[in-house]
Amino acid sequence: xxxxxxxxxxxxxxxxxxxxxxxxxxxxxxxxxxxxxxxxxxxxxxxxxxxxxxxxxxxxxxxxxxxxx
Length: 69
Hints:
Blueprint: H1 3-22, H2 28-32, H3 44-49, H4 53-65
Helix pairs in contact: 1-4
């Protein structure tokens, strides 16, 4: 596995841990596969595939801080 692949895996693990801190961990997989109005009807996994993972991090930050989107 190359360094880029290892870095991507670490990023995905960090994202999963962060999501598990704002929702029940067993719900993360379902949430990633469910269309979400916050992302224009895209599934969060589709947002990630588009290279827009920062949108998920922003949502996590807003949930953690209690500020509205």
